[in-house]
Task: inverse folding
């Protein structure tokens, strides 16, 4: 089916009704494979003509069904995802590829597999460290995934097919980075709200359609005259998954433009390309284990170093945020995390130390991934903007 | 006074537990003294037999901040450390043990220049030369030590524990790949320690320590196998008191092995003579996860009602024994033992399509083997890893074996989150529930 809308309107349309396109593709005979976070290698699914489809929660819906499988004091995003799964909202998925990114996700997917039993389900273990032995182990795990995907798809995954898929996804990464370049001017040419709608759309449709959508968006944004207004604050937002524009709108309806981000509903999946290695799985293994930036991975400034320098450690872990801040001329950072996220929770005081060392004003917002949290967040954001009034 | 003493006897504690516990406590004190005298010290997470034999063989003294969290909670000082961690910017939802450590370390470094705070219970934890974490079971256990970098420039090593899925484990080559990965990592860890400490590994010492550790785990497993008897001869209180000598390898490993053997003999005697851990066993229960360390007297009150706790969380039990006598490399024996703990129940889990193969499925096996009437589930507000699976366990036990659960929330450190009186008020209704499901199980053909 040919989409009637284009560019930003099309992205908004997909954002508002994500399953629609997936269900159309399913009706055409395509298999839809769900994944929960960016550690599941979409390239492998694409290479087998499967449609990777990211499972998100819905912060507007109470997570009543999740009580069947998860405690209340638990990652509210995972609770929301499981709730939607148990309600049958993801019944159109033909299978799932899930990765051991954080423990909350790892444990949720075991419950998911038991209580929902998708027809195809593969669990990909991801080491906590990036040592050479970890990379080797992870690479072999990707080969196992390849085997079960081949069996599920009923076809062989050749190196050539995988390389073509990596190229298509790398093109998407490149186009996303080009879209983010449009946020460098003051005022930015595209808002944070629009960007999130585009990213979430990309994670709902086949890569080729996504690349076409991105080209349309980039052209439209460059040509339009009614983009975001200039505002005093140019902010970066960091933290756990943001998959709903409500939080972004709070920032952008105040005296701030959100110009760049560091979370897995934004830059994290797109910032580096997968290297096209002779054995394409080598490139995938390195990219997904070593290059993806998420606090779930333990990274040493010096592997096996017998001394520790805290600032060197912070620089090795967060140096890329300095690059974001410089490149997008950021003058304030919002650190945000859902409650009960251990990975981001432990990270927060350290990233604050790093931002303080750069002289970048910052604030930490914790929320429970619900609409009810928004009013309090609005107040906190306004207070922060008052504090950094320029 | 008489009534009080009678209450104390509601649980008949094992005599053999006391010398084992005393050895553990004594070894902790010795470690602290040695560290204070300048011996290299490590802070370690529970690492399920991977790192402990290696640091022991390298003659490094080890203390366990997780354990120390329970010490601080019992001593009533944890709240002040939690408050300090809050003030230092750590979110309040993080692991209670970690926040206790942040508060303790912040005070040690900022107020006492790296010296142990004078009011630290049990001699405190001296500043280490090494932080040893593990990624087994929860993210917090390496993120927490990483965050200690805010206070101390101490090198950190993270041990790897692969966790394949239940189905995926049985794909060709996966098991051996996991072992190879662990062995490579352990070899790197040894090399790192040699660089850090400036001395070589004593491989013969490691070989001997590993063999003793494997036998210790086997004997400890056999002790717990005896608890399947009716009445159950050993209460969970004794399990928790005795487990540090296995789980953390606290104390001299050879001494501990002999003391576990003594415990086996005592428990066997009780089984042979039909002696239970409580006077009249009306209900057999499983306990999950970590107990309320600050309110252990609570179990005496339940014992008075005839509640005997016959099995506990999988995570604190030794692995199902496997024959490692043909494995010459001590690092490989370590890897195989630890991995057996991790995946020892997967074969049954995959057959039964229960994919929470390590933290969840063992409760089902225990229900059938230990024939418990109810599961006491204790979700911990600041410990996701010890709580995440409990809803699933509750659902699985009812679905598969018609065993009901009671859920009482609490915490490992923050005693304000556990209300023993409220918990006890739920005992009577739960007894009715257990009675009901005894009938249901009988009707459905179960043998307990």
Result:
């Amino acid at each position: 089916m040919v989409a009637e809308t284009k560019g930003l309107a099309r992205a908004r349309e997909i954002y508002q009704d994500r399953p629609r396109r997936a269900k159309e593709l399913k009706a055409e005979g395509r298999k839809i494979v769900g994944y929960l976070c960016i550690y599941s290698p979409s390239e492998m699914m694409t290479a087998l003509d499967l449609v990777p489809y990211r499972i998100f929660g819905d912060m507007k819906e109470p997570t009543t069904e999740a009580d069947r499988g998860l405690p209340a004091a638990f990652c509210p995003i995972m609770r929301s995802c499981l709730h939607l799964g148990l309600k049958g909202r993801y019944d159109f998925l033909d299978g799932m590829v899930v990765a051991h990114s954080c423990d909350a996700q790892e444990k949720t997917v075991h419950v998911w597999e038991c209580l929902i039993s998708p027809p195809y389900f593969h669990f990909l273990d991801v080491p906590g460290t990036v040592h050479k032995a970890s990379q080797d182990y992870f690479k072999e795990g990707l080969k196992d995934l390849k085997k079960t995907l081949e069996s599920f798809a009923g076809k062989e995954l050749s190196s050539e097919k995988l390389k073509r898929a990596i190229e298509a996804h790398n093109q998407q990464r490149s186009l996303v980075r080009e879209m983010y370049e449009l946020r460098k001017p003051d005022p930015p040419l595209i808002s944070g709200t629009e960007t999130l709608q585009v990213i979430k759309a990309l994670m709902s449709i086949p890569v080729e359609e996504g690349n076409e959508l991105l080209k349309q968006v980039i052209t439209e944004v460059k040509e339009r005259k009614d983009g975001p207004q200039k505002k005093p604050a140019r902010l970066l937002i960091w933290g756990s998954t943001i998959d709903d524009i409500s939080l972004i709108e709070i920032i952008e309806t105040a005296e701030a433009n959100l110009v760049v981000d560091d979370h897995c509903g934004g830059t994290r999946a797109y910032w580096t390309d997968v290297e096209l290695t002779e054995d394409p799985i080598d490139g995938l293994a390195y990219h997904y284990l070593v290059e993806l930036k998420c606090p779930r991975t333990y990274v040493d400034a010096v592997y096996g170093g017998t001394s520790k320098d805290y600032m060197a450690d912070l620089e090795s872990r967060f140096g890329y945020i300095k690059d974001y801040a410089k490149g997008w001329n950021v003058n304030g950072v919002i650190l945000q995390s859902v409650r009960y996220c251990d990975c981001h929770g432990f990270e927060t005081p350290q990233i604050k130390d790093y931002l303080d060392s750069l002289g970048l004003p910052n604030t930490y917002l914790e929320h429970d991934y619900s609409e009810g949290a928004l009013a309090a967040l609005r107040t906190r954001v306004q207070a922060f903007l008052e504090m950094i009034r320029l | 006074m008489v009534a009080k003493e009678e209450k104390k006897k509601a649980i008949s504690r094992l005599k053999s537990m006391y010398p084992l516990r005393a050895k553990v406590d004594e070894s902790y004190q010795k470690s602290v003294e040695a560290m204070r005298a300048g011996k290299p010290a490590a802070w370690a997470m529970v690492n399920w037999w991977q790192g402990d034999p290696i640091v022991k063989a390298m003659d490094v003294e080890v203390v366990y901040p997780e354990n120390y969290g329970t010490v601080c909670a019992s001593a009533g000082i944890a709240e002040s450390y939690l408050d300090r961690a809050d003030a230092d910017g750590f979110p309040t939802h993080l692991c209670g043990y970690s926040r206790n450590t942040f508060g303790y370390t912040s005070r040690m470094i900022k107020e006492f220049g790296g010296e142990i705070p004078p009011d630290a219970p049990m001699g405190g934890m001296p500043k280490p030369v090494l932080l040893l974490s593990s990624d087994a079971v929860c993210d917090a256990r390496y993120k927490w030590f990483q965050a200690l970098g805010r206070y101390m420039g101490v090198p950190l090593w993270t041990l790897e524990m692969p966790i394949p899925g239940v189905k995926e484990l049985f794909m060709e080559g996966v098991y051996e790949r996991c072992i190879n990965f662990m062995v490579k990592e352990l070899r790197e860890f040894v090399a790192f320690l040699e660089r850090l400490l400036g001395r070589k590994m004593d491989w013969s010492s490691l070989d001997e320590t590993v063999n003793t550790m494997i036998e210790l785990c086997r004997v400890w497993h056999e002790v717990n196998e005896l608890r399947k008897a009716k009445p159950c001869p050993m209460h969970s209180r004794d399990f928790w008191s005795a487990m540090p000598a296995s789980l953390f390898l606290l104390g001299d490993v050879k001494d501990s092995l002999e003391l576990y053997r003594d415990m086996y003999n005592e428990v066997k005697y009780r089984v042979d003579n039909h002696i239970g851990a409580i006077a009249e066993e009306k209900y057999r229960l499983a306990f999950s996860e970590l107990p309320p360390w600050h309110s252990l007297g609570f179990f005496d009150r339940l014992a008075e009602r005839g509640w005997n706790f016959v099995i506990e969380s999988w995570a604190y039990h030794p692995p199902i024994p496997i024959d490692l006598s043909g494995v010459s490399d001590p690092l490989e024996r370590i890897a195989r033992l630890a991995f057996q703990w991790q995946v020892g129940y997967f074969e049954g889990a995959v057959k039964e399509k229960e994919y929470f193969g390590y933290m969840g499925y063992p409760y089902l096996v225990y229900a059938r083997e230990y024939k418990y009437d109810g599961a006491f589930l204790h979700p911990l507000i600041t410990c996701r890893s010890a709580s995440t699976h409990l809803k699933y366990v509750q659902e699985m036990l009812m679905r598969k074996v018609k065993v009901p659960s009671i859920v009482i929330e609490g915490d490992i450190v923050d005693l304000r989150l556990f209300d023993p009186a409220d918990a006890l008020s739920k005992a009577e209704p739960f007894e009715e529930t257990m009675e009901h499901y005894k009938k249901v199980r009988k009707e459905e053909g179960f043998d307990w």
